[in-house]
Amino acid sequence: MTKRAARPFFNSVTMMPNATFYIIKPNSLQAGQAGLFDYAVFLAGHFSRQGAKVYLNCENKDEAEQLAEHFWQVDPKQFLAHNLVGEGPKHGTPIEIGHQEVTPSWNRQLVINLAKNKTTFANKFAEVVDFVPCEEKAKQLARERYKIYRQAGYQLQTIEIDQNS
């Protein structure tokens, strides 16, 4: 399966912070939770292979555990080292999964936000990846997060997820 629309991770020392919002189309594979999890795993792998320490933020503990389990469903040749917050090695793995009630265990440069609430990571991460879901209430919350990042000085971009990705 070919994935598109992932951009390179930047060196936060030389550039301003970025927030990228991926727009989910109603008929895309990412419109459902399994498809969104697939895409989040793809993005986490893409950025971690570039050297980024990635934090995936989920809505709640159950969703975080489901996403962690989803990482085990990939082809063994594509396995990505990951752990839930508070588990795994002392300094963690390149990919850490958490939720609203916990904080990343150590230095993470990039967050992939899967939560649909008002959460923002302005001034906490150099790089933010977020999603604009199909559902109207969640879409409105994504717009609010977008405004907060803009006010915080983040360089913003939106990318439509390819429906065949």
Please give a quick description of this structure.
With 165 residues, this protein is an alpha/beta fold. It has 3 helices and 7 strands; from the N terminus they run βαβαββββαβ.
Strand content: 15-25%
The SSE order reads EHEHEEEEHE
Task: Give the full name of the CATH homologous superfamily.
Answer: DNA polymerase III subunit chi
- Count of individual beta strands: 7
Mean pLDDT: 85
Largest sheet: 7 strands, parallel
The number of helical segments is 3
What general form does the structure show? globular
Instruction: Report the uncertain regions.
Output: 10-14
Biggest sheet, spatial arrangement of strands? 3-4-2-5-6-1-7
Distance between the termini: 7 Å
Rg result: 15 Å
Helix/strand-derived category reads alpha/beta
* CATH fold group: Rossmann fold
CATH architectural grouping: 3-Layer(aba) Sandwich
Whole-number count of domains: 1
Protein name: DNA polymerase III subunit chi
Organism: Vibrio zhanjiangensis
Pfam families: DNA_pol3_chi (PF04364)
Structure description:
The protein is α/β, with parallel strands linked by helices. The protein has one domain: Rossmann fold (3-Layer(aba) Sandwich), CATH 3.40.50.10110. The protein has three helices and seven strands. Strands 3-4-2-5-6-1-7 form a seven-stranded parallel sheet, with helices on both faces. The chain is globular. The termini are close together. About 3% of the residues have low confidence.
